[in-house]
Design a protein that fits this description.
Blueprint: E1 2-5, E2 29-33, E3 38-45, E4 48-55, E5 61-66, H1 69-76, E6 86-89, E7 95-100, E8 103-108, E9 113-116, E10 124-129, E11 135-140, E12 143-148, E13 154-156, E14 165-167, H2 172-179, E15 188-190, E16 196-203, E17 209-214, E18 221-226, E19 236-243, E20 249-254, E21 260-267, E22 273-280, E23 285-292, E24 297-305, E25 317-318, E26 324-329, E27 336-341, E28 346-349, E29 357-364, E30 369-374, E31 383-388, E32 395-396, E33 403-408, E34 414-421, E35 424-432, E36 437-443, E37 456-462, E38 470-476, E39 486-491, H3 512-515, E40 518-523, H4 532-539, H5 546-560, E41 564-574, H6 576-586, E42 594-598, H7 609-616, H8 623-628, E43 641-647, H9 656-667, E44 673-677, H10 686-704
Parallel strand pairs: 39-40, 39-41, 41-42, 42-43, 43-44
Antiparallel strand pairs: 1-6, 2-3, 3-4, 4-5, 6-7, 7-8, 8-9, 10-11, 11-12, 12-13, 14-16, 15-16, 16-19, 17-18, 19-20, 21-22, 22-23, 23-24, 25-26, 26-27, 27-28, 29-30, 30-31, 31-32, 33-34, 34-35, 35-36, 37-38, 38-40
Amino acid sequence: MKRIILLFATFFFLMISNFSNAQQLELPRILKWLDDENYLELKTEAKVSKVYKVNAKSGKSVLFEDLSYEDIVKKNLPEGFTLDRAAITTEDYNSVALIKDNNLYYYSRIKNKFKALTDNPSAEVTPEFSPDENRIAFTRDHDLYYIDIETGLEHRLTNDATDVIYNGYSSWVYMEEILGRATAHQAFWWSPDSKKIAFLRFDDTKVPMFPLYRADGIHGELELTRYPKVGDSNPGVKLGVIDLETKKLTWFDCNCDEDKYIAFPVWTNDSKKFFYQTHNREQNNLKIYIADLASGEKKEIYNEKQEKYIEFHTDLYSLKDGSGFIIRSDKSGWNNLYHYNLEGKLVHQITNVNWRVNGIENVDEKKGVVYFMGTGEKSIENHLFSVNMDGSKLMQLTKEAGTHRAMISPNNQYFIDTYSNISTPTRRELFKAEGKFIRFLGADKGADPAKGEIAKVEIFTIPNPDGFDMPAWWVLPEGFDPEKKYGVVFQIYGGPDSKNVNDRYTNPQENYLTENGIIRFAVDHRGSGHFGKKGLNEFYGHLGTIDIQDYIVAVKWLIAQGFVDETKIGITGGSYGGYMTAIALTKGSDYFTHGFGSSAVIDWRLYDNVYTERYMGTLEKNKELYEAGNVNNYADRLKGKLFMIHGTMDDNVHMQNIIQFVDTLTELKKDFQFMLYPNGRHGWGGNKRVHSMNLQKQFWLDNLTPGK
């Protein structure tokens, strides 16, 4: 099932374009494959959104649904009902579940039937259709429920939730660092036969509280959150399965006796077993178990150990014939695919490449073919590949250089390719599964020469004396003259296994930096993922050390080009990028002269334990490395111009970080600029966002514009 947010004029679908107004006219908005032969395309005609069913073979389109928001409300929904909350759809897009005023509603497009499913003062959250589409599971007040759509009967599956016990609803740190933000705290998984639900139960009793202060009204108020910082206790977690017919609850694992993480149940196709994974606290020993519902027993079938750390296998694929599973592991030094049977015996190493496999897209079990995305030989690219499960016939299916995203049909006969590269605006094309071109679907317009000179965009490599030659990217100002001097702004995130540089299109027009004679620049350090596990392992334990070391190499290279003004070296970013900004202006202050950072970690002891201990190890073992990455320890080196901003209600990177940094700087009598955004979380919108964007723009124009 697919979770969507209903906004504006869409009823069953959401499509928010990230393109500028000048770019969003030509690229078709493909929603998904409806079935083996047809996909859905969203079009807006005369301000009315309509969905068309398009036949892949013929290209013929027919109206699937008129999405006029006003018409749907008037024709099908009760007066006053607005579609403004989270919702889910069935796979065929014929039914939708809505949440309004804390209650759950159901609408069937085919039956033209609307009904309220719940009437309760407490909110229903994380709704999910069963695979047979007859039931909806959800959580309420941290307990797990399901409701039968036809009868309207509600069934409560757990009864012990409190303010620290959550059933099927994840603790904050699991949502943020393990299950992922896209889950919106959902921590339950339907079985394929719709008769069972696996779920995680969390106990936050031992997780310390952290206060967030909201300065509203007369007295203000505190928002208390359970947030485990480095070295703190994690939530207690148990993995269970409930049989909906017998109401039998079977527990399969818990971290009761040791500090470990449990996640990612994946059902076998027959719904009789499921896989799940565990990690130790150090996150360098990952195990996979298979749980048997009939016996109530679990069996370890995979045990991987690495010196530094291992990521959870988030795209483990359970073979439908019940013969085993496929995982993606970087134990060879690069992410590769492996096929294991249910006894944990390696059947085949499916890929054996010295580049990165990014993720499994589809598996055609009848033909024995795996479709996956990977970089290929160039780490700045992303392509669709196919390979036989025995490891033979590895084929790159997308041919054009650049960054590709593939949408494969359910029967693995077609794929829609969306791609761009440094010189090609985003295009969409339709192919047969073997890579044969069928038709061009549309493209963005890209830069318009009629609007004036087009800035030069280039991707290149910067030599690194340590051997990790770094991918880099820049946009040179309009009218660039190599005989002149220009300021430069590093636009950075910079966290572990996170790339700033990819071969994708960037419209060089309509950017205030290049329009005002400032170079836009990005570069990736050795721990960004371009260099496989070798680079990541060198980065381990050295956040704030290895990264800034490599960025300084890039600064030296830029200055050596002759046209970069060494008195105008800027850096900007948010979250980890904010941390990089603060580190650059302190630890790297001999090279970086200006910084504008947002929502920055300052001291890794203040961040959550799952993320930090994964990449820094435990504080007990690596105290010196933590001190080496603490910005406060280098505050005395600040000599450039630094502007930091933060939201007062940031529940991810707490405002505590920036407040301690401000305290350190003021005690040292350092000059800096600082802005708080009241009630802002880890990012903010509306007028606060406009304000912060204007602050940043003015900062760069005041300090880096040529002649100033």
